[in-house]
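Collaborator request, handled under Task 6.
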Amino acid sequence: SVKVELYDGLKAGQHKISVQRGLDVKYLGSTKISLKELTDDELVRPGAGSTIYGKVQCNGKGIEGVVVSDGIEVTVTDKNGVYQLVSRKKNGYVFISVPSGYNVPTDSSIPQFYKHTEKSPSAPERHDFELTTSRDQTSFNLLVLGDIHLARRHDDLLQFPRFADDINKYISEHQNETFYAVTLGDMVHDQFWIPNDYGFIEFKNELRLLNGLPVFQTIGNHDHSIAYNTEEGAVIEYRENLGPNYYSFNIGNVHLVALDNIFCTTTASVGSFKSHTYEANLGTEQMEWLKKDLSHVSKDKVVFAFMHSTWHNNPGTKSYSNGFNMDDGEELHRLLNAYKEAHAFSAHTHLMWNVKDENTYEHNAGAVCAAWWVSGYLSPGIHIAKDGAPGGYHVVKVNGKDVTWQYKGVDLPITTQFRTYDRNMIDLSPEKQVPNASQKHKEEYMASAEYWLTPGVENEVYINVWNTDYDWKVEVKENGFALKVERLRCTDPLYLHTTLAKRQNSNTSSDGAQTYHMYKVVASSPNSTLDITVTDRFGNVYTEQMKRPRPFSIEEYRTY
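C-alpha coordinates returned to the collaborator:
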Protein backbone atom coordinates (compact mmCIF):
# COMPACT_ATOMS: atom_id res chain seq x y z
CA SER A 1 0.00 0.00 0.00
CA VAL A 2 1.02 3.62 -0.37
CA LYS A 3 0.06 6.78 1.49
CA VAL A 4 -0.42 9.95 -0.52
CA GLU A 5 0.04 13.25 1.31
CA LEU A 6 -1.30 16.50 -0.05
CA TYR A 7 1.08 19.45 -0.13
CA ASP A 8 0.91 23.24 -0.09
CA GLY A 9 0.48 24.56 -3.62
CA LEU A 10 -1.36 21.48 -4.87
CA LYS A 11 -3.66 22.37 -7.78
CA ALA A 12 -7.10 20.98 -8.47
CA GLY A 13 -7.65 18.60 -11.41
CA GLN A 14 -6.64 15.15 -12.66
CA HIS A 15 -3.43 13.73 -11.15
CA LYS A 16 -1.43 10.59 -11.95
CA ILE A 17 -0.14 8.60 -9.00
CA SER A 18 3.08 6.63 -9.29
CA VAL A 19 5.44 5.01 -6.81
CA GLN A 20 9.20 5.20 -7.33
CA ARG A 21 11.97 3.01 -5.90
CA GLY A 22 15.42 3.83 -7.15
CA LEU A 23 15.12 4.14 -10.93
CA ASP A 24 12.02 2.01 -11.11
CA VAL A 25 8.66 3.78 -11.43
CA LYS A 26 5.29 2.02 -11.29
CA TYR A 27 2.10 3.78 -12.35
CA LEU A 28 -0.72 3.06 -9.89
CA GLY A 29 -3.58 4.99 -11.38
CA SER A 30 -5.09 8.45 -11.48
CA THR A 31 -7.47 10.51 -9.38
CA LYS A 32 -9.27 13.80 -9.57
CA ILE A 33 -8.70 16.27 -6.77
CA SER A 34 -11.08 19.11 -6.00
CA LEU A 35 -10.03 21.95 -3.70
CA LYS A 36 -12.47 23.93 -1.60
CA GLU A 37 -11.59 26.95 0.52
CA LEU A 38 -12.83 26.37 4.07
CA THR A 39 -15.24 28.97 5.33
CA ASP A 40 -14.39 30.79 8.55
CA ASP A 41 -17.02 28.77 10.43
CA GLU A 42 -15.54 25.51 9.12
CA LEU A 43 -12.00 26.58 9.99
CA VAL A 44 -12.73 28.08 13.41
CA ARG A 45 -14.83 25.75 15.51
CA PRO A 46 -14.37 24.22 18.95
CA GLY A 47 -12.12 21.21 19.25
CA ALA A 48 -12.71 18.28 21.59
CA GLY A 49 -13.28 19.58 25.12
CA SER A 50 -12.59 23.20 24.10
CA THR A 51 -14.70 25.81 25.89
CA ILE A 52 -12.94 28.94 24.54
CA TYR A 53 -11.73 29.11 20.97
CA GLY A 54 -11.19 31.69 18.27
CA LYS A 55 -8.84 33.25 15.79
CA VAL A 56 -6.00 35.78 16.05
CA GLN A 57 -5.57 37.61 12.77
CA CYS A 58 -4.25 40.70 11.04
CA ASN A 59 -5.91 42.02 7.88
CA GLY A 60 -7.91 38.82 7.65
CA LYS A 61 -4.88 36.50 7.82
CA GLY A 62 -4.43 34.19 10.80
CA ILE A 63 -1.22 34.56 12.83
CA GLU A 64 0.55 31.40 13.93
CA GLY A 65 2.27 30.94 17.30
CA VAL A 66 0.41 33.59 19.34
CA VAL A 67 0.22 32.65 23.03
CA VAL A 68 -3.35 32.64 24.39
CA SER A 69 -4.42 32.11 28.00
CA ASP A 70 -7.27 32.29 30.50
CA GLY A 71 -4.84 33.00 33.37
CA ILE A 72 -4.52 29.29 34.15
CA GLU A 73 -4.18 27.35 30.89
CA VAL A 74 -1.83 28.48 28.12
CA THR A 75 -1.91 27.51 24.43
CA VAL A 76 -0.73 28.83 21.04
CA THR A 77 -2.47 29.49 17.74
CA ASP A 78 -2.03 27.05 14.84
CA LYS A 79 -0.95 27.89 11.27
CA ASN A 80 -4.40 29.38 10.61
CA GLY A 81 -4.27 31.58 13.72
CA VAL A 82 -6.84 29.39 15.51
CA TYR A 83 -6.57 28.58 19.22
CA GLN A 84 -8.38 26.13 21.48
CA LEU A 85 -8.57 26.36 25.29
CA VAL A 86 -9.97 23.74 27.61
CA SER A 87 -10.92 26.30 30.23
CA ARG A 88 -13.02 26.32 33.37
CA LYS A 89 -13.45 30.08 32.83
CA LYS A 90 -12.59 30.69 36.46
CA ASN A 91 -11.18 34.17 35.81
CA GLY A 92 -13.89 35.20 33.37
CA TYR A 93 -11.68 36.20 30.47
CA VAL A 94 -9.30 35.09 27.73
CA PHE A 95 -6.28 37.12 26.61
CA ILE A 96 -3.49 37.01 24.09
CA SER A 97 0.18 37.74 24.69
CA VAL A 98 0.39 40.41 21.99
CA PRO A 99 3.16 39.23 19.64
CA SER A 100 6.12 41.38 18.63
CA GLY A 101 5.47 43.52 15.60
CA TYR A 102 1.77 43.98 16.31
CA ASN A 103 -0.57 46.25 18.25
CA VAL A 104 -4.11 45.83 19.53
CA PRO A 105 -6.88 48.47 19.56
CA THR A 106 -7.07 50.75 22.61
CA ASP A 107 -10.02 52.05 24.61
CA SER A 108 -9.14 55.24 26.52
CA SER A 109 -5.46 54.29 26.00
CA ILE A 110 -6.02 50.81 27.51
CA PRO A 111 -4.94 48.03 25.09
CA GLN A 112 -7.77 45.60 24.31
CA PHE A 113 -5.83 42.31 24.36
CA TYR A 114 -8.52 40.48 26.35
CA LYS A 115 -12.17 39.43 26.05
CA HIS A 116 -14.59 38.67 28.88
CA THR A 117 -16.27 35.28 28.72
CA GLU A 118 -20.06 35.23 28.49
CA LYS A 119 -21.30 31.64 28.68
CA SER A 120 -21.40 28.88 31.30
CA PRO A 121 -18.11 27.09 32.10
CA SER A 122 -18.98 24.08 29.92
CA ALA A 123 -20.42 25.96 26.92
CA PRO A 124 -18.00 26.62 24.03
CA GLU A 125 -17.70 30.29 23.07
CA ARG A 126 -15.70 32.06 20.39
CA HIS A 127 -13.49 35.10 20.93
CA ASP A 128 -11.40 36.53 18.08
CA PHE A 129 -8.58 39.08 18.25
CA GLU A 130 -7.76 41.53 15.48
CA LEU A 131 -4.21 42.92 15.40
CA THR A 132 -2.59 45.70 13.41
CA THR A 133 1.02 45.83 12.35
CA SER A 134 3.26 48.13 14.38
CA ARG A 135 5.99 50.46 13.26
CA ASP A 136 9.48 49.01 13.77
CA GLN A 137 9.84 47.77 17.37
CA THR A 138 13.59 47.09 17.28
CA SER A 139 13.90 50.29 19.29
CA PHE A 140 11.13 51.63 21.50
CA ASN A 141 10.45 53.69 24.61
CA LEU A 142 8.51 52.41 27.59
CA LEU A 143 7.15 54.95 30.07
CA VAL A 144 6.81 53.37 33.52
CA LEU A 145 4.19 55.04 35.73
CA GLY A 146 4.13 54.24 39.44
CA ASP A 147 1.35 55.11 41.93
CA ILE A 148 -0.94 57.59 40.18
CA HIS A 149 -3.48 57.57 43.05
CA LEU A 150 -6.33 59.60 41.62
CA ALA A 151 -9.09 59.94 44.20
CA ARG A 152 -10.60 63.41 43.80
CA ARG A 153 -8.64 64.87 46.72
CA HIS A 154 -5.62 67.15 47.28
CA ASP A 155 -6.43 68.85 43.96
CA ASP A 156 -5.18 65.72 42.20
CA LEU A 157 -7.50 66.21 39.21
CA LEU A 158 -6.03 69.69 38.75
CA GLN A 159 -2.45 68.44 39.05
CA PHE A 160 -2.81 65.31 36.89
CA PRO A 161 -3.09 67.29 33.61
CA ARG A 162 0.41 68.69 34.28
CA PHE A 163 1.70 65.12 34.31
CA ALA A 164 -0.22 64.30 31.12
CA ASP A 165 1.09 67.44 29.42
CA ASP A 166 4.62 66.50 30.45
CA ILE A 167 4.32 63.06 28.82
CA ASN A 168 2.68 64.46 25.68
CA LYS A 169 5.42 67.06 25.34
CA TYR A 170 8.17 64.47 25.81
CA ILE A 171 6.63 62.21 23.15
CA SER A 172 6.21 65.13 20.74
CA GLU A 173 9.92 65.91 21.13
CA HIS A 174 10.66 62.32 20.05
CA GLN A 175 7.91 61.92 17.48
CA ASN A 176 9.89 59.56 15.23
CA GLU A 177 10.22 57.06 18.08
CA THR A 178 7.83 54.33 19.27
CA PHE A 179 6.19 54.75 22.70
CA TYR A 180 4.25 52.50 25.07
CA ALA A 181 3.48 52.91 28.77
CA VAL A 182 2.70 50.69 31.74
CA THR A 183 1.32 51.58 35.17
CA LEU A 184 2.60 49.93 38.35
CA GLY A 185 -0.61 49.85 40.36
CA ASP A 186 -2.61 52.13 42.65
CA MET A 187 -4.06 54.08 39.77
CA VAL A 188 -7.03 54.87 42.04
CA HIS A 189 -7.62 54.55 45.79
CA ASP A 190 -10.15 51.97 47.00
CA GLN A 191 -10.96 53.87 50.19
CA PHE A 192 -12.29 56.81 48.15
CA TRP A 193 -14.19 55.00 45.39
CA ILE A 194 -17.53 55.61 47.09
CA PRO A 195 -17.06 58.69 49.34
CA ASN A 196 -15.34 60.70 46.58
CA ASP A 197 -17.16 59.06 43.66
CA TYR A 198 -13.91 58.26 41.86
CA GLY A 199 -12.97 54.81 40.57
CA PHE A 200 -11.83 52.93 37.48
CA ILE A 201 -14.35 54.47 35.09
CA GLU A 202 -13.24 57.98 36.01
CA PHE A 203 -9.58 56.93 35.77
CA LYS A 204 -10.11 55.57 32.26
CA ASN A 205 -11.63 58.89 31.25
CA GLU A 206 -8.58 60.68 32.68
CA LEU A 207 -6.27 58.60 30.47
CA ARG A 208 -7.80 60.28 27.42
CA LEU A 209 -5.43 63.16 28.20
CA LEU A 210 -2.55 60.95 26.99
CA ASN A 211 -3.61 61.25 23.34
CA GLY A 212 -4.01 57.54 22.63
CA LEU A 213 -0.69 56.38 24.12
CA PRO A 214 -1.10 52.61 24.77
CA VAL A 215 -0.98 52.21 28.57
CA PHE A 216 -0.84 48.65 29.93
CA GLN A 217 -2.06 48.26 33.52
CA THR A 218 -0.70 46.58 36.67
CA ILE A 219 -2.89 46.06 39.74
CA GLY A 220 -1.98 47.58 43.13
CA ASN A 221 -3.29 47.09 46.66
CA HIS A 222 -5.58 50.13 46.35
CA ASP A 223 -6.99 48.73 43.10
CA HIS A 224 -8.42 45.78 45.07
CA SER A 225 -12.00 46.30 46.21
CA ILE A 226 -12.46 46.59 49.97
CA ALA A 227 -15.96 45.13 49.56
CA TYR A 228 -14.38 41.65 49.59
CA ASN A 229 -12.25 39.76 52.10
CA THR A 230 -10.66 37.42 49.55
CA GLU A 231 -8.28 37.85 46.63
CA GLU A 232 -10.83 36.31 44.25
CA GLY A 233 -13.48 38.87 45.18
CA ALA A 234 -11.18 41.86 45.55
CA VAL A 235 -10.05 41.74 41.89
CA ILE A 236 -13.54 41.52 40.33
CA GLU A 237 -14.02 45.25 39.72
CA TYR A 238 -10.48 45.66 38.42
CA ARG A 239 -10.96 42.82 35.92
CA GLU A 240 -14.31 44.20 34.77
CA ASN A 241 -12.84 47.63 34.06
CA LEU A 242 -9.12 47.24 33.32
CA GLY A 243 -8.77 43.58 32.33
CA PRO A 244 -6.63 40.68 33.61
CA ASN A 245 -4.73 41.26 36.84
CA TYR A 246 -1.78 39.32 35.38
CA TYR A 247 -0.84 38.75 31.72
CA SER A 248 2.02 39.14 29.24
CA PHE A 249 2.80 40.88 25.94
CA ASN A 250 5.76 41.36 23.63
CA ILE A 251 7.44 44.40 22.10
CA GLY A 252 10.44 43.90 19.85
CA ASN A 253 12.98 41.67 21.60
CA VAL A 254 11.38 42.09 25.02
CA HIS A 255 8.83 39.87 26.73
CA LEU A 256 6.80 41.88 29.26
CA VAL A 257 4.79 40.44 32.15
CA ALA A 258 2.38 42.32 34.42
CA LEU A 259 1.97 40.52 37.76
CA ASP A 260 -0.36 40.78 40.74
CA ASN A 261 1.86 40.42 43.81
CA ILE A 262 -0.80 41.75 46.19
CA PHE A 263 -2.54 38.75 47.74
CA CYS A 264 -5.45 40.10 49.77
CA THR A 265 -6.58 38.24 52.86
CA THR A 266 -8.96 40.34 54.96
CA THR A 267 -10.08 43.92 55.43
CA ALA A 268 -9.50 45.95 58.56
CA SER A 269 -10.40 49.41 59.81
CA VAL A 270 -7.73 52.10 59.60
CA GLY A 271 -9.11 55.20 61.27
CA SER A 272 -12.42 55.98 59.57
CA PHE A 273 -11.58 53.82 56.53
CA LYS A 274 -11.46 50.14 55.73
CA SER A 275 -8.29 48.81 54.16
CA HIS A 276 -6.94 45.47 52.98
CA THR A 277 -4.47 43.32 54.80
CA TYR A 278 -2.43 41.41 52.27
CA GLU A 279 0.71 39.41 51.60
CA ALA A 280 3.31 40.24 48.96
CA ASN A 281 3.41 37.14 46.78
CA LEU A 282 2.14 35.71 43.50
CA GLY A 283 0.54 32.58 44.91
CA THR A 284 0.60 29.08 43.44
CA GLU A 285 -1.90 29.59 40.61
CA GLN A 286 -0.25 32.73 39.22
CA MET A 287 3.25 31.27 39.60
CA GLU A 288 2.22 28.16 37.64
CA TRP A 289 0.72 30.36 34.93
CA LEU A 290 3.95 32.38 34.77
CA LYS A 291 6.01 29.21 34.28
CA LYS A 292 3.75 28.17 31.39
CA ASP A 293 3.93 31.63 29.87
CA LEU A 294 7.72 31.82 30.09
CA SER A 295 8.06 28.35 28.56
CA HIS A 296 7.23 30.05 25.25
CA VAL A 297 9.99 32.67 25.66
CA SER A 298 13.53 31.89 24.50
CA LYS A 299 16.27 32.39 27.08
CA ASP A 300 18.10 34.97 24.95
CA LYS A 301 15.17 37.38 25.32
CA VAL A 302 15.07 40.35 27.69
CA VAL A 303 12.22 40.09 30.21
CA PHE A 304 10.44 42.98 31.94
CA ALA A 305 8.23 42.21 34.95
CA PHE A 306 5.85 44.79 36.44
CA MET A 307 4.48 44.51 39.97
CA HIS A 308 3.10 46.86 42.57
CA SER A 309 4.72 45.77 45.82
CA THR A 310 8.49 45.45 45.93
CA TRP A 311 10.28 42.23 45.05
CA HIS A 312 13.46 42.88 47.07
CA ASN A 313 13.89 44.63 50.40
CA ASN A 314 14.53 48.39 50.43
CA PRO A 315 18.29 49.10 50.64
CA GLY A 316 17.56 52.62 51.91
CA THR A 317 16.39 51.58 55.37
CA LYS A 318 18.61 51.28 58.43
CA SER A 319 17.47 47.70 58.94
CA TYR A 320 18.18 46.65 55.33
CA SER A 321 19.29 43.10 54.73
CA ASN A 322 19.72 41.38 51.39
CA GLY A 323 16.70 39.34 50.50
CA PHE A 324 13.19 39.39 49.14
CA ASN A 325 10.11 41.26 50.29
CA MET A 326 7.89 38.74 48.47
CA ASP A 327 7.23 35.35 50.08
CA ASP A 328 7.88 33.63 46.75
CA GLY A 329 10.53 36.11 45.65
CA GLU A 330 13.28 33.51 45.46
CA GLU A 331 11.21 31.33 43.13
CA LEU A 332 10.54 34.34 40.92
CA HIS A 333 14.27 35.06 40.90
CA ARG A 334 15.02 31.55 39.64
CA LEU A 335 12.57 32.03 36.77
CA LEU A 336 13.77 35.49 35.69
CA ASN A 337 17.47 34.92 36.31
CA ALA A 338 17.47 32.24 33.59
CA TYR A 339 17.16 34.98 30.96
CA LYS A 340 19.82 37.14 29.37
CA GLU A 341 18.60 40.11 31.36
CA ALA A 342 15.48 40.73 33.44
CA HIS A 343 14.17 43.98 34.89
CA ALA A 344 11.45 44.21 37.51
CA PHE A 345 9.71 47.56 38.00
CA SER A 346 7.84 48.07 41.28
CA ALA A 347 6.09 50.94 43.07
CA HIS A 348 4.04 51.00 46.33
CA THR A 349 6.64 52.74 48.51
CA HIS A 350 6.52 56.12 46.69
CA LEU A 351 10.33 55.92 46.87
CA MET A 352 13.17 55.29 44.45
CA TRP A 353 15.92 52.68 44.68
CA ASN A 354 17.66 50.08 42.52
CA VAL A 355 18.90 46.56 43.28
CA LYS A 356 20.97 44.30 41.01
CA ASP A 357 20.88 40.56 41.69
CA GLU A 358 22.84 38.45 39.16
CA ASN A 359 20.98 38.80 35.81
CA THR A 360 18.05 40.63 37.39
CA TYR A 361 17.42 44.25 38.36
CA GLU A 362 14.66 45.76 40.43
CA HIS A 363 13.76 49.40 40.01
CA ASN A 364 11.51 50.74 42.75
CA ALA A 365 10.42 53.34 40.29
CA GLY A 366 9.00 56.31 42.19
CA ALA A 367 5.48 57.72 41.97
CA VAL A 368 3.59 59.90 39.51
CA CYS A 369 1.65 61.36 42.43
CA ALA A 370 4.86 61.79 44.50
CA ALA A 371 3.35 61.84 48.02
CA TRP A 372 -0.33 61.43 47.04
CA TRP A 373 -0.33 64.87 45.33
CA VAL A 374 0.02 66.48 48.78
CA SER A 375 3.12 68.62 48.20
CA GLY A 376 1.57 70.42 45.22
CA TYR A 377 -1.60 70.90 47.25
CA LEU A 378 0.16 72.34 50.33
CA SER A 379 3.08 74.03 48.53
CA PRO A 380 2.07 74.85 44.93
CA GLY A 381 4.97 74.49 42.53
CA ILE A 382 6.62 71.67 44.48
CA HIS A 383 5.90 68.07 43.45
CA ILE A 384 8.02 65.92 45.75
CA ALA A 385 7.91 62.41 47.24
CA LYS A 386 8.83 61.25 50.74
CA ASP A 387 12.47 60.63 49.79
CA GLY A 388 12.87 63.95 47.98
CA ALA A 389 12.50 62.54 44.47
CA PRO A 390 10.22 64.54 42.19
CA GLY A 391 6.93 63.03 41.11
CA GLY A 392 7.43 61.59 37.65
CA TYR A 393 8.05 58.48 35.61
CA HIS A 394 10.79 56.29 34.15
CA VAL A 395 11.74 56.44 30.49
CA VAL A 396 13.08 53.00 29.57
CA LYS A 397 14.78 52.86 26.18
CA VAL A 398 15.23 49.55 24.38
CA ASN A 399 17.53 49.28 21.38
CA GLY A 400 17.52 45.67 20.21
CA LYS A 401 18.43 43.87 23.44
CA ASP A 402 20.18 46.85 25.05
CA VAL A 403 18.24 48.50 27.87
CA THR A 404 18.84 51.95 29.38
CA TRP A 405 16.71 54.04 31.70
CA GLN A 406 16.34 57.56 33.07
CA TYR A 407 13.88 59.15 35.48
CA LYS A 408 11.82 62.08 34.20
CA GLY A 409 10.48 64.47 36.85
CA VAL A 410 7.25 66.22 35.96
CA ASP A 411 7.99 69.80 34.83
CA LEU A 412 11.72 69.02 34.85
CA PRO A 413 14.03 68.34 31.89
CA ILE A 414 15.29 64.77 31.78
CA THR A 415 18.78 66.20 32.32
CA THR A 416 17.76 67.10 35.89
CA GLN A 417 18.74 64.07 37.97
CA PHE A 418 19.60 65.61 41.34
CA ARG A 419 18.87 68.48 43.70
CA THR A 420 21.33 70.36 45.93
CA TYR A 421 20.92 71.82 49.43
CA ASP A 422 23.10 74.31 51.30
CA ARG A 423 22.99 73.06 54.89
CA ASN A 424 23.99 76.45 56.29
CA MET A 425 20.72 77.88 54.97
CA ILE A 426 18.41 75.18 56.35
CA ASP A 427 16.59 75.66 59.64
CA LEU A 428 14.02 72.90 60.18
CA SER A 429 13.65 73.46 63.91
CA PRO A 430 10.09 72.86 65.13
CA GLU A 431 9.91 76.47 66.33
CA LYS A 432 10.32 77.60 62.73
CA GLN A 433 8.44 74.84 60.90
CA VAL A 434 5.54 73.71 63.12
CA PRO A 435 5.08 76.40 65.79
CA ASN A 436 1.30 76.03 66.01
CA ALA A 437 0.98 72.30 65.35
CA SER A 438 -0.70 69.83 67.66
CA GLN A 439 1.54 67.89 69.97
CA LYS A 440 1.01 64.72 67.92
CA HIS A 441 1.90 66.45 64.66
CA LYS A 442 4.94 68.10 66.27
CA GLU A 443 6.20 64.75 67.57
CA GLU A 444 5.74 63.09 64.16
CA TYR A 445 7.53 65.97 62.48
CA MET A 446 10.47 65.86 64.90
CA ALA A 447 10.86 62.11 64.46
CA SER A 448 11.28 62.54 60.70
CA ALA A 449 13.26 65.80 60.87
CA GLU A 450 15.66 64.59 63.55
CA TYR A 451 18.69 64.96 61.27
CA TRP A 452 17.84 68.58 60.43
CA LEU A 453 16.45 70.04 63.67
CA THR A 454 19.29 72.49 64.29
CA PRO A 455 20.63 75.02 61.75
CA GLY A 456 23.83 74.02 59.97
CA VAL A 457 27.10 75.93 60.48
CA GLU A 458 29.70 73.53 59.03
CA ASN A 459 29.44 74.38 55.30
CA GLU A 460 27.89 71.05 54.41
CA VAL A 461 26.22 70.58 51.03
CA TYR A 462 23.76 67.75 50.34
CA ILE A 463 23.01 66.28 46.92
CA ASN A 464 19.91 64.11 46.44
CA VAL A 465 20.56 61.86 43.40
CA TRP A 466 17.23 60.05 43.31
CA ASN A 467 17.84 57.32 40.68
CA THR A 468 21.39 56.45 41.71
CA ASP A 469 22.84 52.97 42.05
CA TYR A 470 26.35 51.68 42.77
CA ASP A 471 27.45 52.31 39.18
CA TRP A 472 26.77 56.05 39.39
CA LYS A 473 29.53 58.51 40.26
CA VAL A 474 29.17 61.81 42.16
CA GLU A 475 32.06 64.31 41.99
CA VAL A 476 32.28 67.76 43.58
CA LYS A 477 34.99 70.37 43.16
CA GLU A 478 35.57 73.61 45.08
CA ASN A 479 37.91 76.07 43.35
CA GLY A 480 39.18 73.20 41.22
CA PHE A 481 39.92 70.90 44.16
CA ALA A 482 37.98 67.68 44.62
CA LEU A 483 35.97 67.31 47.83
CA LYS A 484 35.38 64.02 49.60
CA VAL A 485 31.89 62.71 48.77
CA GLU A 486 30.03 60.68 51.40
CA ARG A 487 26.87 58.67 50.75
CA LEU A 488 24.48 58.54 53.70
CA ARG A 489 21.00 57.69 54.86
CA CYS A 490 18.77 60.57 55.89
CA THR A 491 15.46 62.26 55.16
CA ASP A 492 15.05 64.99 52.54
CA PRO A 493 14.78 68.54 53.93
CA LEU A 494 12.65 69.95 51.11
CA TYR A 495 9.98 67.30 51.61
CA LEU A 496 9.96 68.04 55.34
CA HIS A 497 9.65 71.79 54.72
CA THR A 498 7.07 71.79 51.92
CA THR A 499 4.91 68.84 52.93
CA LEU A 500 5.38 67.22 56.30
CA ALA A 501 5.62 70.51 58.22
CA LYS A 502 2.39 71.75 56.61
CA ARG A 503 0.47 68.53 57.20
CA GLN A 504 -2.54 68.97 59.46
CA ASN A 505 -3.81 65.41 59.83
CA SER A 506 -2.70 61.83 59.27
CA ASN A 507 -4.78 61.47 56.08
CA THR A 508 -2.80 63.93 53.99
CA SER A 509 0.69 62.41 53.85
CA SER A 510 3.15 59.95 55.33
CA ASP A 511 6.19 60.89 57.37
CA GLY A 512 9.48 61.60 55.66
CA ALA A 513 11.34 58.50 54.51
CA GLN A 514 15.00 57.76 54.94
CA THR A 515 16.80 57.47 51.64
CA TYR A 516 20.18 56.09 50.65
CA HIS A 517 20.47 58.30 47.58
CA MET A 518 21.73 61.35 49.49
CA TYR A 519 25.36 62.49 49.19
CA LYS A 520 27.27 65.00 51.35
CA VAL A 521 30.39 67.14 50.97
CA VAL A 522 31.97 69.67 53.33
CA ALA A 523 33.15 72.90 51.70
CA SER A 524 35.87 75.14 53.09
CA SER A 525 33.75 78.28 52.92
CA PRO A 526 30.08 79.21 53.30
CA ASN A 527 30.08 81.22 50.05
CA SER A 528 32.23 79.23 47.62
CA THR A 529 30.86 77.97 44.30
CA LEU A 530 30.79 74.20 43.84
CA ASP A 531 31.01 72.36 40.52
CA ILE A 532 28.94 69.18 40.80
CA THR A 533 29.17 66.37 38.24
CA VAL A 534 26.99 63.27 38.37
CA THR A 535 27.59 60.44 35.91
CA ASP A 536 25.05 57.63 35.59
CA ARG A 537 25.76 53.98 34.78
CA PHE A 538 25.38 54.66 31.05
CA GLY A 539 27.86 57.53 30.93
CA ASN A 540 25.29 60.34 30.83
CA VAL A 541 26.73 63.38 32.61
CA TYR A 542 24.62 65.83 34.64
CA THR A 543 26.15 69.01 36.03
CA GLU A 544 25.35 71.98 38.22
CA GLN A 545 27.38 74.98 39.25
CA MET A 546 26.05 75.62 42.73
CA LYS A 547 26.44 79.22 43.81
CA ARG A 548 26.42 79.57 47.60
CA PRO A 549 24.91 80.54 49.88
CA ARG A 550 21.89 78.97 48.18
CA PRO A 551 18.52 79.96 49.68
CA PHE A 552 16.29 77.25 51.09
CA SER A 553 12.70 78.13 50.19
CA ILE A 554 9.73 77.02 48.13
CA GLU A 555 10.46 79.78 45.61
CA GLU A 556 14.02 78.53 45.14
CA TYR A 557 12.95 75.00 44.26
CA ARG A 558 9.52 75.30 42.70
CA THR A 559 9.19 73.93 39.16
CA TYR A 560 6.08 75.85 38.03
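The cover message to the collaborator said: "The chain has a mean pLDDT of 93. The radius of gyration is 28 Å. Please let us know whether this matches your experimental observations."
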